[in-house]
């Protein structure tokens, strides 16, 4: 009995151990299967994500671009201009005509400014305050005799006292010229006084070449007051044209509220005289007046830009005196105007002790037939007048 019980117990233990071994093997196998399945599930989202997203692109940048400094100007386009002429190693010296002998010319009135069109800024400013204080009706009114009568009287009047004798004319530099065709330039005028006061206005420079080798130039400048325009200055030049360019016979100047003055270029006796002074100068070839001098520079540049070398000296008769204007080329520049950005040649007339205290700058544009597209006058006081071309229109030539 006991023997049979022992055998039964050993058989049950064997079967129990075998079941444990089988269960262990099955458990291990199930773990292996589960691990393999779970590993596959872990890798699936990564693969799906990699296929779902677009491929990344990379670019190698050696150095991040740096923004340009705020103060650095944009690069200027290349100027399409004729080359600057080589400066003469020994610029031609042009001696000014001898000064007038006693009696001396009357001194200019305080605030007067003389010279080329750019010098009119002070003349306009002298009268702008008075014009602005008047009503529109008063601003348009003149004083004294009608302008036509004043012009006739000034043109025919001789100096009150005999003028001093002029000495013989001296040899001066001569230029080839190509006169600009009849046109009108309208310019915006902006002035800043020495004390910071600002003025604005408009100027027109018009000229006509007549069929009988004659010409007429008219320069007008004024300011806007309320709803009207007040003309403050009118300068006219009349004469003939020839191998020397413009040959003035008569220049008249009328400032608002002042008497008209006249400058006579006497071809008969070869003198320059003035209705407002007793000065007298020899009339040299190429002599200009304050209305024609700018256009004479244009004619010189049109004929041959190489003539703009060294000093460009022009003897200029003004309203009561005369002197040699000496210009030099400062360089080539692009300037902004109401007509756009324009390539120019920049000419400068620096102050000349004993003659004029202001600096005059002219910007001539080859693309516009060398006409002036900007004029600036810097006075000794620090006041600056800038005239910038707004419009250039050709005119039909006709009798002056």
Q: Strands, helices and their partners?
A:
Layout: H1 2-52, H2 120-133, H3 136-139, H4 147-156, E1 183-192, E2 198-209, E3 214-225, E4 228-242, E5 245-255, E6 261-266, E7 271-274, E8 280-282, E9 288-289, H5 293-303, E10 312-317, E11 322-337, E12 340-349, E13 359-365, E14 371-378, E15 384-394
Parallel strand pairs: 9-10
Antiparallel strand pairs: 1-2, 1-15, 2-3, 3-4, 4-5, 5-6, 6-7, 7-8, 10-11, 11-12, 12-13, 13-14, 14-15
- Spatially, the strands of the biggest sheet line up as 8-7-6-5-4-3-2-1-15-14-13-12-11-10-9
Rg value: 44 Å
Task: Name the poorly predicted regions.
Answer: 37-65, 67-74, 87-115, 132-147, 157-163
Overall average residue pLDDT:
75
Shape annotation: rod-shaped
Q: By helix and strand content, what is the structural category?
A: alpha+beta
Number of strands: 15
Strand content: 25-35%
C-alpha end-to-end distance: 162 Å
From the coordinates shown, what is the CATH architecture of the domain at 180-394?
Answer: Clam
Q: Count the helices. How many?
A: 5
Question: What is the CATH T-level topology of the domain at 180-394?
Answer: outer membrane lipoprotein receptor (LolB), chain A
**Proportion of residues in helical segments:** 10-25%
Largest sheet: 15 strands, mixed
| Helix-strand sequence | HHHHEEEEEEEEEHEEEEEE
CATH class term of the domain at 180-394: Mainly Beta
């Amino acid at each position: 009995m006991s023997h049979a019980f022992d055998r039964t117990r050993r058989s049950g233990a064997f079967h129990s151990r075998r079941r444990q071994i089988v269960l262990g093997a099955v458990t291990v196998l199930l773990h292996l299967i589960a691990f393999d399945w779970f590993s596959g599930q872990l890798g699936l989202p990564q693969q799906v994500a990699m296929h779902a997203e677009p491929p990344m692109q990379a670019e190698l940048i050696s150095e991040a671009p740096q923004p340009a400094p705020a103060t650095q100007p944009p690069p200027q386009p290349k100027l399409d201009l004729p080359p600057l002429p080589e400066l003469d190693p020994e610029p031609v010296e042009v001696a000014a005509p001898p000064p007038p002998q006693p009696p001396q010319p009357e001194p200019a009135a305080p605030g007067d400014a003389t010279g080329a069109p750019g010098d009119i800024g002070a003349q306009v400013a002298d009268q702008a305050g008075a014009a602005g204080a008047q009503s529109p009706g008063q601003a348009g009114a003149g004083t004294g005799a009608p302008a036509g009568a004043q012009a006739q009287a000034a043109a025919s009047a001789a100096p009150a006292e005999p003028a001093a004798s002029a000495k013989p004319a001296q040899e001066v530099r001569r230029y080839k010229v190509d006169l600009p065709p009849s046109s009108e330039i309208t310019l915006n005028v902006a002035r800043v006084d020495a004390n910071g006061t600002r003025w604005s206005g408009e100027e027109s420079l018009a000229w006509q070449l007549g069929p009988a080798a004659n010409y007429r130039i008219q320069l007008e400048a004024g300011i806007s007051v309320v709803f009207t325009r007040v003309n403050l200055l009118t300068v006219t030049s009349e004469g003939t044209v020839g191998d020397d360019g413009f040959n003035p016979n008569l220049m008249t100047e009328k400032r608002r509220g002042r008497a008209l003055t006249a400058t006579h270029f006497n071809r008969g006796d070869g003198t320059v005289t003035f209705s407002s002074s007793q000065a007298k100068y020899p009339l040299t070839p190429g002599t200009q007046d304050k209305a024609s001098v700018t256009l004479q520079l244009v004619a010189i540049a049109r004929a041959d830009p190489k003539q703009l070398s060294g000093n460009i000296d022009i003897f200029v008769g003004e309203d009561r005196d005369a002197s040699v204007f000496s210009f030099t080329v400062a360089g080539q520049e692009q300037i902004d105007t109401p007509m756009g950005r324009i390539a120019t040649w920049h000419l400068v007339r620096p102050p000349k002790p004993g003659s004029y205290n202001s600096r005059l700058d002219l910007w001539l544009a080859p693309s516009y037939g060398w006409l002036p597209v900007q004029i600036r006058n810097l006075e000794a006081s620090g006041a600056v007048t800038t005239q910038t071309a707004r419009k250039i229109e050709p005119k039909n030539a006709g009798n002056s």
